[in-house]
Amino acid sequence: MTNPSTSRMPDPGQLVPELNDISAALFRATGNRSVPRATMSLVHLRAGQIVGNTYLTILNTGFLRKAGESEERVTAVSSWQDAPYFTDGERAALALVEATLQPAPHGRERVPDELYAEVAEHYDDKALATLTIAIGQISFYAALAVIGKPQPVTSLADRQWD
Fold first, then answer.
1. Which of 36, 57, 66, 93 has the highest Cβ tally under 10 A?
2. Distance from chain centroid for Cα 121
3. Over the chain (162 residues), what is each successive 10-residue block's mean pLDDT?
4. d(CA 97, CA 76)
5. What single-letter DSSP state applies at residue 76?
6. pTM, 2 dp
């Protein structure tokens, strides 16, 4: 078993340099400001919680805190359904990431038309496409995080891979 302070694999960006281009493209695509940055970080934090990954949870918690989000909002993401700290738009985005990353009830779509319509009430076409890409982005990084097990950090500038 590996030491918990040591990543499981070397830096994948060093092994596959094209990863840096993919990462840059995803950050450009999701950084178009059509969705508030706080919403993106809330969605990414919830995704990290859903997949049960400390790296993603700590990283996105750090982003939210550095952006000045309240401790109540940061800590209530895991129980957002009954927490009073989120806007209707944030709730719709959180519901969308949950529906996307969790198994659907038997015989049902993961993202039913009703949920899509709810999200579309809060986000225009560009924002909805951006939010969809952001969920795909975090899913992409979730695979690297759960398989590679980088060290938990609060900033992308910190050393994550051994």
1. 93
2. 21
3. 70 93 94 95 96 93 95 97 97 98 90 97 98 95 92 84 82
4. 16
5. T
6. 0.90
